[in-house]
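HUMAN: Forgive my ignorance: could you write out one protein's sequence and backbone structure tokens?

ASSISTANT:
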Amino acid sequence: MRVAVLSDTHAPRFWKTCPPAVAARLGEADLILHAGDVCVPSVLDELAAFAPVHAVLGNNDGADVAAWGAPEELRLTVAGVRIAMLHDSGPASGRLPRLRARFPDADLVVFGHSHIPWNEESGGFRVFNPGSPTDKRRQPHGTIGLLELADGRVVSAQIVPVTP
């Protein structure tokens, strides 16, 4: 299962429409996860034209994004991988053990908020932030995440630049 992971698209200020480099990657996805700060639900509709979408609420998302179907936290199983999603994972220091304690049954925790890509794994437990494709802040590139999931494990987890 090929999963594209986005966060912090911040439409319409930064995401006017799906950037071509992002669309090229979404065209290969079987599923899309959005870790919050969508800001307008039309982004989720746009993403759903590529593949099924699961999203969580970010601190900049309102009732319209919640009405689309985005809860504050989400748990789902994809290709046997138990995934937990939330927007804000808290400080970087101690992140992996803190999220492992918060989601003891998860294999993978997807989050956003910081706009800083993060891909850390320990003992079969992974925490993953795709960064932002449109609001890179102090990062060198806008990014998304690409996951390959199969047989209950994360086969690969990549942070992919989508801006020069």
DSSP finds four helices and ten strands in the chain.
